[in-house]
Amino acid sequence: MQETNEQGTAVEQSKPLDDLMQKVAEHKGCGTSGGSGKASCGSSAGQGDLPTEIWEKVKNHPCYSEEAHHHYARMHVAVAPACNIQCNYCNRKYDCANESRPGVVSEKLTPEQAAKKVVAVASTIPQMTVLGIAGPGDPLANPEKTFRTFELISEMAPDIKLCLSTNGLALPEHVETIKKFNVDHVTITINMVDPEVGAKIYPWIFHEHKRYKGVEAAKLLSDHQLRGLEMLTEAGILCKVNSVMIPGINDEHLVEVNKAVKSRGAFLHNIMPLISAPEHGTVFGLNGQRGPTAQELKALQDKCEGEMNMMRHCRQCRADAVGLLGEDRSAEFTTDKIMEMDVQYDPEVRREYQETVEREREAKVVAKQAELEEIAGEQSDIRVLVAVATKGSGRINEHFGHAKEFQIYELSTAGSKFVGHRRVDLYCQGGYGDEDALPTVIRAISDCHAVFVAKIGGCPRDELKGAGIEPVDGYAHEFIEQSALAWFKDYLGRVQSGEIEHIDRGDAAIRQGAYVA
Amino acid sequence: MAYKIVSSQCTACSACEPECPNNAIREKDGTFIIKPEKCTECIGYFDDPQCVAVCPVDDTCIIDNSYPRYEAAV
Fold first, then answer.
1. What is the rounded CA–CA span in Å between residue A142 and residue A145?
2. pTM of structure
3. Cβ contacts of B31 on chain A, cutoff 8 Å
4. Can you tell me whether residue B18 is helix, strand or coil?
5. Residue of A92, A209, A210 lying closest to B13 (CB–CB)
6. What is the mean pLDDT of residues A141-152?
7. Has the ipTM of the complex gone over 0.95?
8. HEC string of A308-340?
9. CB atoms within 10 A of CB A193
10. Radius of gyration of chain B, Cα coordinates, nearest whole angstrom
């Protein structure tokens, strides 16, 4: 039997959703102790050299912690449709069933609908720890809807972390409110600190009843972004900076952006590839602006990494995404379906589930540590990338043909490091291999030496081998990094004995668009 | 004249609604519309019509020629 939580109305168990909503409405403003419900099992898995107070903030946040993204899920609610700037990589006019990319959503929600959705998802997916508002416009261009949503959720589900993602134009005027609503993670998209560069990315901004264009617009935007960042970090709010890498426009400049945001206290920098295709109808899509290749992106991320933590696990998700970062379960939670759900928000069930997750995380770190000690004696300059098919939990637990993406790890005698992921959405559908799709998969991981899978069919196995990528199914359901390091040790042994020759691999292509369910 | 919203172009992003100084804009059937009798083309409030300035899709908030030119009340 579970106990009734003492924290008040919002978290009572076995209450149908509408009752909950009603109680929230009646008890508006009642005190809840948000922090006390959070997992406190004291796991240090993945903490590395992070200060404890920051680790406490990020350890269950899939976007702010790479390690956490294998275990914890997030959701976005699309309550903020209006935007106050225009970006050349965005087009608000296009939204059809076949489109899936940031800025596009299937349905807009009111704050009340959004709160219902959050409670419904949190009850179904106990590892959902983070609620973000990321548009499809700009959350701070819709301040009333955004903050009303936060207010409702903090009362109904106080254990859920709140975060928002903004272009930063309206940020300085809202820092106080952000603080007031206990939003402890903010992402700002900063693509430039030089207005001349900005003028090539932003055709206009709307500020204080006026449309500004060109360099003047970019300068205003940049000033507000950097000032907002400083104000947030001073207020103790954790900031991540997103930058879109646009080859020939801001690719080299992003090193400067990286320095500027680090010096202003940003915790994490996420350099993302431009999503650009003519069918999106964006300025960049129509004028043929290309996105970076996988290796161009990695080279820039590597270059900036000496300066600060780099995020490499971003999936550029939609403003209505639900689930682990590599999946999108939003189709299970449409407004129609939510209204029919009999939701029972039970924080105790969530807490128990999350404790299990923490134990799993610790086991994973111990396993990796043991393998690292094994490899410590090896001497080699060889550095390889490997691709991994996983459904989450940090294990090799996905069939090659079912993988919608592969996670990429870099292996050397210094250890293993997560360096990114590659989309390959559904090469295999209905259990039959789609022959045409395999070359697409191979292109996406062609810079890798091996691919780790739970299972793989005979045909793709042979084709991968032919392409110089070793299919590895001997570590099915084992921990990813421990297995990769064990394989790498064996690989080095095979190279040393002359059994195989180590050959450098080439580049790989980045698939366009956001994930679809 | 008043402004009108070309509904086939409107993304229903709602950016225009709070910017209108006359509360002339509201949602109807999935897009937004301007009540012509309330629209003052922002004359007397701002240099530019706010719906035009904030709209993310060009040529979506346009002059409605079926109405006479707005004249500020004296």
1. 6
2. 0.82
3. none
4. helix
5. A92
6. 95
7. no
8. CCECCCCCCCCCCCEECCCCCCHHHHCHHHHHH
9. 21
10. 11
